[in-house]
Design a protein that fits this description.
The complex is a heterodimer of chains A (116) and B (113). Chain A starts with a strand and ends with a strand. In chain A, strand 5 and strand 6 form a beta hairpin. In chain A, strands 2, 4, 5, 6, 9, 10 and 11 form a seven-stranded mixed β-sheet that branches. A four-stranded antiparallel β-sheet of chain A has the order 1-3-8-7, with no helix packed on it. Chain A has 116 residues and is an all-beta fold. In chain B, strand 4 and strand 5 form a beta hairpin. Chain B has 113 residues and is an all-beta fold. The chains are: A mainly beta (116), B mainly beta (113). At the A-B interface, strand 5, strand 9 and strand 10 of A face strand 4, strand 5 and strand 9 of B.
């Protein structure tokens, strides 16, 4: 099946620093990728839709200046958490949909972010 | 307004028996449905999907049933195994473009040995 990777798998940073998370589709091209956040014991919360070569579409309540998304190629999207604060600590998961393929989204393994 | 609902937050089943996870949706434009399985601290894993032109899709121990008139789908796992213990998410899509899947809140399945 399609494979999506995320890097890093976990990161600890100091408050005020920025953290970049990469999402790669390894064996397929993905015009569209999605970024989710999961709080403990809660379901997935869609943050934004990342479109290759264009601006991301953010869900209501998600600060676009706080969570910068770049989708510069058909296999890579990045999420940068700028000026991270402890409340940004969470589990971030990306998914990718194969260009021209079915609606199935394939998820990465997630990135655990802890902001001290 | 939740368009995809999984009304049972949890389900316990004995090993070897059938697990039935249910999902209801409200948007009649949805025409593609998926089930994902998720372990703690991991990303969801795609399990099985069904198009609205079908009412059943089977893959090994997993079968998804779709009742369009009732806007209801279910995932059957038989026989259930302890390794099936996870959170299962139902998701739906209206295939009208690059719109994200709409997920339910998940059902935690515990398979007891």
């Amino acid at each position: 099946g399609a494979v999506v990777s995320q890097h890093p798998s976990r990161v600890i940073c100091k408050s005020g620093t920025s953290v970049k998370i990469e999402c790669r589709s390894l064996d397929f091209q993905a015009t569209t990728m999605f970024w989710y956040r999961q709080f403990p014991k809660q379901s997935l919360m869609l943050m934004a839709t990342s479109n290759e070569g264009s601006k991301a579409t953010y869900e209501q309540g998600v600060e676009k200046d706080k969570f910068l998304i770049n989708h510069a190629s058909l296999t890579l999207s990045t999420l940068t958490v700028t000026s991270a604060h402890p409340e940004d600590s969470s589990f971030y998961i990306c998914s990718a949909r194969e260009t021209g393929g079915p609606e199935t989204q394939y998820f990465g393994p997630g990135t655990r972010l802890l902001v001290l | 307004d939740q368009q995809v609902k999984q009304n049972s937050p949890s389900l316990s089943v004995q090993e070897g028996r059938i697990s039935i996870l249910n999902c209801d949706y409200t948007n009649s434009m949805f025409d593609y449905f998926l089930w994902y399985k998720k372990y703690p601290a991991e990303g969801p894993t795609f399990l099985i999907s069904i198009s609205s032109i079908k009412d059943k899709n089977e893959d090994g121990r997993f079968t998804v049933f779709l009742n369009k008139s009732a806007k209801h789908l279910s995932l059957h796992i038989v026989p259930s195994q302890p390794g099936d213990s996870a959170v299962y998410f139902c998701a739906a899509s209206a295939r009208s473009g690059n719109t994200p899947l709409v997920f339910g809140k998940g059902t935690r399945l515990s398979v007891i040995a």
